[in-house]
Amino acid sequence: MEKEFEPACRRMEWLDPFYKAVWEKAFAEGIPISGTFELTPRCNFNCKMCYVHLKEKDIPKYGKELSAKEWLRIAEEAKEAGTTWLCITGGEPLMHPEFPEIWKGLSEMGFFLTLQTNASMITGEIQTLLEQYPPRQVKITLYGSNDEVYEAVCGVKKGFTRVNDGIHTLMSMGIPVTLVSTIIRQNAEDAEKMAFYAYVHRLPWDSTIGVRPSLRGADLDLNDVRFSEKLEENRKKNMEKRISKSSFLDPEKKPCTYCKDYRLGYWILWDGTVSFCSFLNESGISVRNVPFQKSWKLLLEYEETLEWPEECQTCEAAKICERCAERVRNRKSSVDGQESFCEQTKRLYKEICKE
C-alpha cells in the first residue's frame, strides 16, 4: 500500500544512497530492518537523568528480564523477518548476567551490531569478547571530563577514569567509537571540556539537554537535573523558525509518522515489551511468548491506531508544536508544579504572536 507521506529516511541526506534505497524498500513493505535490544535495567552507574535504571532488588516489581535463550530466539526470528541492524543497550548492557552468551550469539548471526555502553567495564572477559566479536561501532555515554563531575552526575568513584580507559581500549582495538552526552545542571559547566575531549580524540560527539520523565520506576528528579530555562529557549526558537520558514506540521498525519523507526524499526525493552520508541512502553505487545513476526505485525497495527488527542486537533499552536506520540501522551500532566508540555506550548505561541 502506497503511503502519502515520506519516510524519515528520505530526509536523511547523510545516508549512503545504497542504504537509503534499502531503508525505503523496508518502509514501503513494512520490514523491521532496524531494532534495539534493551537487555537490562541494571547499571553500575546511577546517573541522575536516567529513565531506565533500576536497582536489582526493584527489578521484580516491574517485570522479568529476558534470558539469553529468549533474546537469541527473538533475534533468530527477527533476522528471518528482515532485521539487519541491531543496537544493544540497557541500562548498562554489559550488566546482563548472560551478556557474553547473548553477544556471541548475535555476532554469529551476522547482524550489524552497535553496542551502547558507559565503557567502564571494557576489561578482562569483555575486552576479549569484543576482540573476538567486534561491533560495527560502540556508542559511549560521556558525562564529564573528570572523576569529580562523574561522581556528581553518576554517583560513582573514578567514573571518568574507568570510562576513559574503556574508550582508549576500544580505540586501540580499532573499533569505531562515538560519544554522546546528556547535559544537565550537574555537568553543564563541563560541557566545553567534554567537547574538547571528543575533538582531541577525533571522535564524533553529540549532546542533548533533553531529559524525559521516568515512567518505568527509575529514581529521577526532573527538577534537580533539567535545564528548564534552556529547554524553553530552544523550544521558542524552533517554533519561531517554523513560522519564518512556513515549515508547519500536518495535523492530518498520524503521530508515528514523524518517527524515524515508523514501519521499519522497533525497540524491545528488557521485560519483553515491544515498541517503536524507548519512551513508549505501553503498547501491550510482548515478544516473550509470542513469535517475533506476530509481535511486529501487532506493532504496525498499533502504530496505525495511534491518533493525536482531540485537543491537538483544535489547538491554535498545533502546526508549530514539537509534539510526538510520547510527548502528548501525558500532555496535561506537570512535574512538581512545572508547566505541562501543552501549557508551555500555548504560552510560547502567544508570546511569539505578540512579538
Automatic annotation (TrEMBL):
Keyword Repressor among record annotations: no
Required co-factors: [4Fe-4S] cluster
Any one GO molecular function term: metal ion binding
Residue span(s) of domain Radical SAM core: 29-246
A Pfam entry, by short name: Radical_SAM
PROSITE patterns: MOAA_NIFB_PQQE, RADICAL_SAM
Alphabetical keyword list: 4Fe-4S, Iron, Iron-sulfur, Metal-binding, Oxidoreductase, S-adenosyl-L-methionine
This protein's name: Radical SAM/SPASM domain-containing protein
Gene source species: Sellimonas catena
Phylogenetic lineage: Bacteria, Bacillati, Bacillota, Clostridia, Lachnospirales
